[in-house]
Design goal:
Number of strands: 6
Number of helices: 24
Shape: globular
Strand content: under 5%
Structural class: mainly alpha
CATH topology of the largest domain: Na+/H+ antiporter like fold
Order of helices and strands: HHHHHHHHHHHHHHHHHEHEHEHEHEHEHH
Oligomer: single chain
Distance between the termini: 62 Å
Number of domains: 2
Radius of gyration: 26 Å
Largest sheet: 6 strands, parallel
């Protein structure tokens, strides 16, 4: 029995490796390959898994570890960093997607309970996949990247509440009383756990972290313990695991815990999605063809449109809204988990899981290509997206021409640039596409204008032919390339300093006429190397440099505190 299970597990994993190889070639998330593997090893093909309870147990561990990791990396400060837009966009997208999704489901003849499940499940987008794609495209620190991560965190928080509610429904009884009992019981449990972790973990984590092996064992034990406690309280193990991760995320060792847990999580989550694929029921899929097509189109097109409308009303450019909107053009692991829980409590049939899984495959694959080729798609359709941008966002009045220096992007690097402009007596203009930043700069009477560096119409309104210096601290390569191209068309002699985050982009900008390219990582290492060569072992010189650096950081912190008053 044990040997047979081992052989089956080995064959399943090897098949997953082979299919994932092709997913990598097609630049698709490996999650798609795992589900396809499950379909192949399921009862309709090789039937390696069948009704084996061991694979089901493995998949449950995988989901618990996945949600533990989500909680461990749940950084609520991201929402604060991008202001109110993440919260309003996240909640607005959830509300409108749920309402529209519910009526679409009802139009196809689904019952109320099925329509609610499907509508809510389709509101959640994959934080893991989007974080990976934003990282791959180097947009994680961009404005739209931060906003996207912010409203994905909002979605995760709503998902926690939804999972808790579904877990309580398995007990039967009146729905309203169950909801009240669920939230009361859940609230008390969460408060007790957070108080316990606050009182005891602050002293324990330092002791535990002395041994990496013990830190891993402690984290794993805490995850499984809370998952079991919440299961005994009538909730799902997933909710307990997620809260276990959130409690540990408040401590400085959560990065080490995350790195230690990730390989184990990755293995078990592979088995979860393989098991999920094996549970798909294809006999009834034919009757869901049109719902699959309509729901997939709604998620791929409708969800981004909802985000663009909300962000446009809040004063963001069409470009920021478009790029942020692509983050919700797929469904997430939470969507599949929610439907699976609905089946466990008897509210849904397995064919609904199959329908939602197919929607997940289509939307995950489609959104991946949308994000990877977002710049090309945007340049092709940007002229049609102006409807999503408030008219007052565009400059109606002529920009004042009393400047000879332009700074694109008021971030930490840009803050230091302004100090340099003031020292050399330059008349400057700051360009930024974050309306909160422009509002703050205006209050401090800093010359500024709201605009998008990729908008050639906007660039034509600037005095690019008259400027002496142009600096862009924007990390996006395509934006800097457009700024450089438009500047060189009318001004061959201006000093153009741009930012690039890797050598390949820097060399490309140099080839197109950049005067200098700022590469932060290279310059940081170069500066430290020069400092070591100059200072050698002179402690006084290092101390002097440290004090100068500390003063700069204090100025930046003061700036950030002032900014937060206007966000």
């Amino acid at each position: 029995m044990v040997e047979s299970l081992f052989v089956n597990l080995s064959l399943v994993v090897l098949l997953a490796v082979a299919i994932s190889f092709f997913m990598r070639i097609l630049r698709q998330p490996l999650l798609v390959g795992y589900i396809i593997t499950g379909i192949i090893v399921g009862p309709y093909a090789l039937d390696f898994i069948g009704s084996n309870e061991v694979f089901g147990t493995f998949s449950s561990i995988g989901i618990a570890l996945l949600l533990f990791m989500v909680g461990l990396n749940l950084n609520l400060s991201v929402i604060k960093d991008v202001g109110k837009v993440s919260l309003l966009t996240g909640l607005g997208q959830i509300i409108f997607t749920s309402i529209i999704g519910f009526f679409i489901a009802k139009a196809f003849g689904f019952s109320n309970i099925v329509s609610i499940y499907v509508a809510v499940a389709l509101t959640f987008s994959s934080t893991i996949i989007i974080m990976k794609l934003l990282s791959d495209t180097k947009n994680l620190d961009s404005l739209h990247g931060k906003i996207a991560v912010g409203f994905l965190i909002v979605q995760d928080l709503v998902a926690i509440i939804a999972l808790m509610a579904i877990s309580s429904l398995s007990q039967g009884g009146d729905l309203s009383s169950l909801i009240i009992q669920t939230f009361l019981k859940g609230f008390l449990a969460v408060v007790f756990i957070f108080l316990f972790s606050y009182l005891f973990f602050r002293k324990m984590t330092h002791f535990v972290s002395r041994s990496q092996e013990f830190l891993f064992l402690f984290s794993m034990g805490w995850c499984l313990a809370l998952a079991s406690v919440f299961f005994l309280l009538g909730f799902s193990i997933e909710v307990g695991a997620l809260i276990a991760g959130v409690t540990l995320s408040m401590y400085p060792y959560h990065y080490e815990i995350s790195s230690k847990m990730r390989p184990l999580r990755d293995f078990f989550i592979v088995l979860f999605f393989i098991t999920l694929g094996s549970q798909m029921v294809f006999g009834d899929i034919a009757m869901y063809i049109w719902p699959i097509v309509v729901f997939s189109a709604f998620i791929l097109i409708g969800n981004p449109l909802i985000v663009m409308i909300i962000m446009g009303l809040m004063g963001y450019t069409k470009r920021t809204g478009f790029f942020a909107g692509l983050a919700v053009a797929q469904i997430s692991e939470f969507s599949l988990i929610m439907i699976a829980l609905g089946i466990n409590v008897g509210h849904l049939s397995s064919d609904i899981l199959s329908m939602v899984t197919v929607i997940g495959l289509i939307t995950i694959a489609g959104s991946t290509y949308l994000i990877l080729y977002a710049n090309q798609i945007y340049s092709f359709i940007s002229r049609y997206l102006s409807i999503f941008e408030r008219k007052e966002i565009r400059m109606k009045a002529k920009i004042k021409r009393e400047y000879d220096t332009i700074l694109f992007g008021y971030n930490r690097v840009g803050f230091n640039m302004l100090n340099s402009f003031n020292r050399i007596k330059r008349k400057y203009l700051v360009v930024d596409f974050n309306p909160d930043t422009i509002s703050m700069l205006s209050r401090f009477r800093i010359p500024c204008v709201y605009g998008d560096g990729q908008d050639t119409y906007f660039l034509s309104e600037l005095a690019l032919d008259k400027i002496k210096i142009l600096v862009s601290t924007i990390p996006d390569f395509q934006t800097n390339k457009v700024i450089l191209s438009e500047t060189r068309k009318v001004n061959k002699n201006a000093v153009v300093i741009l930012r690039a985050d890797d050598v390949r982009d820097a060399k490309e900008l140099y080839r197109h006429g950049a005067t200098y390219v700022l590469t932060p990582y290279f310059l940081g290492g170069e500066y430290v190397s020069k400092m070591i060569a100059d200072f050698k072992v002179n402690g006084d010189l290092y101390k002097r440099e440290r004090e100068r650096h500390f003063k700069i950081m204090e100025n930046v912190e003061k700036r950030d505190r002032k900014n937060s008053q206007f966000m």
